[in-house]
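A favour, since you know our structure tokens better than I do. Would you make up a two-line entry for one protein for me to read? Write everything out right here, beneath this request.
=====
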Amino acid sequence: MSVLLLRLAGPMQSWGSSSRFSRRNTDVAPTKSGVIGLLAAARGIRRTEPLTELLGLQFGVRLDQPGQILRDFHTARSLDGRQSAPLTYRYYLSDAAFLAAVSGDENMLYGLAEALHRPKFPLYLGRRSCPPAGPISLGVHDGTIDDALTSWPWLAAEWYRRRASREVRLEIIRDVRPGEPVTETMHDVPVSFDPAHRQHTWRSVLRRHVDVTNDVAERAGVTEHDPLSLLGG
């Protein structure tokens, strides 16, 4: 079994699985539909074309640097200034970084990795205004999604790691395998991106955690996080 690893990091990201009308939310982690859309853009698959080759991919993501929620309030008027467009609220994740993994046919994974290096269409992190910071593909590796998300080095920025404690707990969200307990279901599997009849279906996910050692904190001699110490407790 093989997995393609992705580094999803940038000044802003937005991964909405339930956005409607004037309020465009973001989830706290990249969605499967958003990442499949990114891979489809890399391969040059247009919105009106079928996603057949990508629908069988398994997906998981690790929240390496969760970032902060940023709200953007939009106003707009017609060119002549006589009419106002509806007010909208758009939400983003700022300064976030994630490790994502997809598994499937090995030849297809290598093809996707190559496409990410030479994408046919521009790549963005959930929304067109959110370009990635640096290369996305971390290559194809042997193992399962669990193997990759529990063993790959922490991707958080240096400044973030300096503030963290020696041991850090990271959340993992991945597709459920047969026989595993379901943590929740999400309306997050694209059937079609065609604007005329956009369709999504449900997927079952499992949430778990993995502990990683923060070597930056170890070198700096940072002690474990203890907020009560500020109060003399």
The mean pLDDT is 90. The radius of gyration is 19 Å. The longest helix spans residues 32-43. The first strand starts at residue 2 and ends at 13.
